[in-house]
């Protein structure tokens, strides 16, 4: 994707320009529990970030975090059985930067770099010091972030991945949406990389399968995406395409095919939150959505040096504080750090101690603010306007707390830099810029307000410290969209499906998806009509451990590989046939023959398998025909057909071979296209 969304470099509860976007009723409420009147001062659960559920409990702002979405999909339980060497993740997205020490070292390439046909695995991607957008970094850290003492832990740590930077550009920050032909070039490179790695595998090792993830709005040539993905899934069972379930309807409410998820070859993933609730933004036409996965407040790792926003609250980077004097009655020791006070881009660095004044929503000059810290609730105007109204009242610092419809424990972070209102940038009139501004949760803000109104608060001390070095040059973006972003959900699903496949490498794509379909958690009692449930949730929430147990009980038979060759690219057959071109290929004429050979091979040993019935199909039928449709493979030569070319007919002929299921092998299909 060229840009995750307009809020990625802003903050999750405001628009990119710093406005407090949306009416309170237009966004989902992530209420963990009700906020009682007065001073409900229960400490929020530890170890969390936005929405108070992102990181693993007990991890907090120090150490390594685990996304809530991983156990929600049961993917954490696959750690004991997954084998990263059995699955290749090919990400056709933006790029990465290898200076991020929390992501795997991967190989990759960029457009315009030809690959040697049949050549070895390659690496032509300029990783070091290159910023090519966030998409690759987001996907790779969600799927495969390392299991170390810092950062995030991915679904399948240190994943085996290949990056094709389809958004490659010489202009940093400029990422035009790709054309269909550009995406297909990426898919072809992924397929070639898979084949190169398969060729390098030691005989006897488990099969290698590939999950391809791509996203984006296809500007033109979307039919090429449909045709190529259909071709791949028809001729091989070791490739799975995944994409976020999103797109557009036109003014006539007709679906427009502009995203990969528009096509059935892609496993389209809808987005849900921690409570398994969907958003209207993830709808697709009925039967388009395959499954759903967590997509709200999904965290990822990135380089701190790539961002200048102070509001990117990295662990170990900022620790804003609030301290009331005297301490509030009934407030536990860790209350003011649960969640940690949010940071605002553009805020001054320092500590302020003063009395507190209630400024309401701060939508006008705050009376009585002189020399005090302004307590302002979110809503109704931009953060910059609220702070400006505090300054106009001669206030010296600001605490902005959450709206009434936000969860009691949600953090508030924001941006004061470059905010535009009525075509004018809002700036601070103070010589040093904006004062100290920090965010507070709804619970924290209500506790301050209650104490102030009861006359029990003498002064408040707030601190916005300077950045301090981290153990490694990475940060954790607090900027995952509040909206239910299907990109994040598809990243989650890609990792979970790949981890499951790595534990069952002998299964085909179809067998993996069948197991997932059988075990997905359906959305029940939603109050929605059936068609809307299907559009928003698909078959349900991924439950990959249940799918693993299903496959243990119902093990997959190995899926053989089928190799199809024709005499069109070798010597004529039969030898006495005279109607050939200069290259020896048969064209036209009554009785013009060509040979088709299909070899069935064990996917592990690669040895040819005999005694397997194979059915051959030709499309279109008007170009050629074979005397029989089914033959059985022999020990040395496979199954061989003698077919005839119809007089005067010409064009592309698709030859499809399908092996029958046997006691030892699953059915397999492969196809090639030749020109007559």
UniProtKB/TrEMBL annotation:
- InterPro entries xref list: PA_dom_sf, PA_domain, Peptidase_S8/S53_dom_sf
* Annotated Polar residues bias: 12-28
Question: Which GO molecular function entries does the Swiss-Prot or TrEMBL record give?
Answer: serine-type endopeptidase activity
Q: Region entry Disordered: which residue ranges?
A: 1-28
Q: Which domain of life is it from?
A: Eukaryota
- PA domain boundaries: 368-407
- Which Pfam families does the UniProt entry name for this protein? PA
According to its UniProt entry, the protein's GO biological process terms are: proteolysis
Gene3D superfamilies in the cross-refs: 3.50.30.30, Peptidase S8/S53 domain (3.40.50.200)
Q: Which CDD domains match?
A: PA
Descriptive protein name: PA domain-containing protein
